[in-house]
Fold:
Amino acid sequence: MLMFAKGNEGGNFTPVQKGGAFTSKSPSKSRSKSPPNPAQCAQDKNRETRALSSLSATRRGLPKEKMSENGVVSRAKVLTIDTMNPTVKKVEYAVRGPIVQRAVELERELSEGMKKPFAEVIKANIGDAHAMGQQPITFFRQVLALCSYPELLNDTTFPEDAKSRARRILQSCGGNSMGSYTASQGIDSVRQDVARYIERRDGGVPCDPDDIYLTTGASDGIVTMLKLLMCGEGADCTGVMISIPQYPLYSAALAELGAVQINYYLNEENCWSMDISELHRALDEAREYCNPRALCVINPGNPTGQVQSRQCIEDVIRFAAKERLLLMADEVYQDNVYADGCQFHSFKKVLFEMGPEYSDTVELVSFHSTSKCYMGECGFRGGYMEIINMDEEVKAQLSKLVSVRLCPPVPGQALMDLVVNPPQPGEPSYAKFIKERTATLSALAEKATLTEQVLNTVKGISCNPVQGAMYSFPSITIPEKAIKEAMDIGQQPDMFYCMRLLEETGICLVPGSGFGQKDGTYHFRMTILPPKDKLQILLNKVKEFHEKFTDDFIASNQNAPGLKGQEFLRRQSHTGLQQLKSPDSSLAHQWNEVMRSHSISCSSAGPALSG
Amino acid sequence: MSQEAANGGSPRGRVLTLENMNPNVKRVEYAVRGPIVQRAVQIEKELKEGVKKPFTEVIKANIGDAHAMGQKPITFFRQVLALCSYPELLEDDKFPSDAKNRARRILEACGGHSIGAYSASQGIECIRQDVARFIERRDGGIPSNPDHIYLSTGASDAIVTMLKLLVCGEGRDRTGVMISIPQYPLYSAALADLAAVQINYYLDEEKCWGLDVAELRRSLTEARKHCNPRVLCIINPGNPTGQVQSRQCIEDVIRFAKEEHLFLMADEVYQDNVYAEGCKFHSFKKVLFEMGPEYSSTVEMASFHSTSKCYMGECGFRGGYMEVINMDPEVKAQLIKLVSVRLCPPIPGQALLDLVVNPPQPDEPSYTLFMKERTAVLAALAEKARLTEQIFNTVPGFTCNPVQGAMYTFPRLNLSQKAIDKAKEEGQIPDMFYCMKLLEEEGICLVPGSGFGQRDGTFHFRMTILPPTDKLKFVLEKIRDFHLRFTQEFS
Structure:
């Protein structure tokens, strides 16, 4: 099976040739009831209103060019859906996708006084700790305030260590101001601190500040690295191996760059572990149609929450060395390890422990961020990447490339500095810092356990332990009837499920299809970030919903669910949320898969996973 | 197959090499932070290590980085940012009440009342509302819709995003983008990265770097033979050229864009930086709407603004926005999706932008200080713009247009044939040779005109006017002395 970036998931229709009056190539699986009507289409306003409210208008086969009645092509916009960058159209990013848009809309409706079966929308779709009520680390924010307004350095209420950190950061800024540009690679002294941090973390394995690039969040670094790797056409086109389930930044970036996405599947039965034979399978298949050059690993896993063993990392490194793949290690959750017996091992440390045969040759880039761990400072967009064994000429190109964007935001750089160089024993802020840090991490550990426990009490939900990171990604059994109804309105079954959960309970989760999953399995991703009492309520609500959902669709097996599906379709196309995942021909295929999958999730996966 | 070929028996190379990396990235050039700046950094390091040089410090006049040149931040802005960073300070009476109010309002718009939360990908809603109101005030009441505002990570981010949306087609159908020459090299770099076709139109140096529609037409007609021109980029006030476009000129450009079916991108990040008498900033949007519905309801446009320039010069915060006008709603949905992948622009930058578009008002306690600081910065810049032009025009072999706006001067250098030959001998473009020599001898870092583009056979450099007045004077005089020496050496 080919795994071109998003190509087989549909939704990406052949771009229409320039000048073509109608999209004859647009999918025939049109949900519009009548054939396109030129007169109607000449009415710009109609079309605009419709398009405003629904992304799927063109997908339903509306004409692409406005025509007047005499058939003369009137002037279309310069930039239309047909004349825009086709790779951008292929980008999908479920974490902020249609379901989140609907959640925002529901919030607005609530605030306008509309009656809903819930009082607030709980956004458990994204790892946004502060939005969930986590308090910032006091020391970090003190230093940031001092850097923002250095007059506060004369204020006696700030602790000395905060002041000395702020002074040090300001001294490395042009004109002693955070308002200056920095070196494009990041502030020298911050990169030095990052290097020392990595050395401490990795038991003394040396780290060169010249190999550190500060970034605008980890995403920025990841996209930049993928961009560098991109070359070749057709069978020579760069292929990048990513885990399924994956964090959709990867698929989005690959789609945009026109790279080939190579899926390797994590083993859900074995706590989402990574399996070398599966890597081999994926690679061998991919070599037939592309040039696989990079292997991306997320550890601890997003959305799957697994923590890789040292042995597994060694195997992966050996695999990358043998198959000549550049390794990209996304390690942004490195402090988020909760399960007993699990420990974070950095790819770099393991690489160097494997001896010079590996540490001198394997090209590795690892990514970190200020957004996760105990700090959860997403809004600052701080991060870094460390590059290992990178070709010097390529490094020069990398430095040039990042210079075009001038520099990462300086407050984010400053924050990164504090994360890698926090208060030390003996400093006035140390005790408080450790207290705050420990409180956050132990609460997360508790919530990880709670989530796994509660979800596993639900019949039809099986949840692997949340060993690390910030999410649970349970497998859900969706009744056949519900699957059919979802298909009828052109939705992925787990999207259908999550959308209904949102409408009925106000809980916003991301469907597993947004991350990728084995055909016929369904999941959702939920953050474990809400405060414990709120999380408990949330989990109970999910439980109730799931039971009710299952009952509804099993009970309604004999009688068609009537208006429910239609109602959903109406609402969603009204709000531009409808997702037709699959064009024309694949409907039958999907049906087959649905049938097959259903039997799988009922028989094999179910019992093995429920704990 | 390709894999085997790559592996086949040959000594094991790296996965990622200059030969097999992204060819578009290789074509990217960005002179503002190019080889000359790298050399400047190296020299700074050498100075620190005690290496003897004919100067004691490197003066980086290569980039529009106001704070690095000693400009002080606006007090009110930084007070609010400190309050947002550490809300415990809201209890502190040292902070004025208007700063506290602004901080509370921003925090209330943040998830969990923390600037550490992600925001909507398009930017915090209340900030977009403030931006829209700012644009309405600026443009004499022409309505602005917050839904058409996208906050960005500096203006560069938004410019690259817009260009990315616009690129499509292959071969002769490939998107072409018209950019001025000289240009700000972000444009050429982004176009190289996106493998779009760069279409050069030349500004008229004889007419104070004026934009001439006949020249636009010439370059468009030529370009149509080999690509599909779809976009026209304008920088006003100009970078690196410092011209400020007249209202008439903007109207002509808009008419041209409509006629030729081009998407307009108006880079207006220097909108407060207008110094010359008789010059005034006119936003493209305002002029567009004043031209009536025939234009205002059809011409597609994006305009860009930033926290990095004007009187605030807060480059490090990477704040900015773009306003899109007449954009196809389906494309807009794609744009929203695209920006969502990067989650959100940095919140401190968003907060700062909010303050820029919603500064202290006459009845608020911080107003006086704010106005004093703002006026002082802009007046000093105006003075430095004049000073620069004056001194450079006394140098034989320099021709310097008035710095009507923005932050740079882009004088033309008369280089002797001997100097040109010498540069070629060293494998350098003559103005790079000149600037490199200036750096080595005087410690002054400028950017050669070739990094921005210039007419064949002409040579320039870009210098910021940002150093404090006395230092600027010193720099200008050093450059003059150097030029005289250089001219003598190669006469």
